[in-house]
Specification:
One of its GO terms (molecular function) is GTP binding. The chain is α/β, with parallel strands linked by helices. 38% of the residues lie in helices and 16% in strands. It has one domain (8-119): P-loop containing nucleotide triphosphate hydrolases (Rossmann fold), CATH 3.40.50. It has five helices and four strands. It has a four-stranded parallel beta sheet, sandwiched between helices.
Length: 120
């Protein structure tokens, strides 16, 4: 199994590629079926720098709201990041580590609000 011994998993999609976001729910279900119940998951929309650099008005990007909806549905933290600009990268990792250290409180099995932390 890909997840053997994993304590935390970052699911990263490319905000410039809608298909990558469409695959996220498959991966979340795969994790739920094959990983430990204690594994912590964070959802990351990466390459946000390409939104502002875009000059093609016909280019469709993943909407931030869709990422937030998925995060709330599964009770996982959500971040939009730019690895190129180092935007939100550190806080995304630190949040996942904090969830691991706390044993998942506030993460995958959270309250009725979904327990999602969103940063965009």
């Amino acid at each position: 199994s890909y997840y053997k011994g994993a304590q935390g998993i970052m699911l990263v999609y490319d905000v410039t590629d809608r298909a990558s976001l469409a695959n996220i729910e498959y991966w979340i279900k795969n994790i739920k079926n094959h990983a430990s119940d204690q594994v912590q998951v964070a959802l990351i929309g990466n390459k946000t720098d390409l939104r502002s650099a875009n000059t093609d008005p016909t280019k469709k990007f993943c909407e931030t709201e869709r990422g937030k909806e998925i995060a709330v549905k599964y009770g996982i933290p959500f971040f939009e990041t730019s690895a190129k600009d180092s935007f939100n990268v550190e806080i995304a990792f630190l949040t996942l580590v904090e969830h691991i250290a706390l044993g998942g409180s506030g993460s995958t099995n959270s309250s009725s609000t979904g327990g999602a932390t969103t940063h965009s």
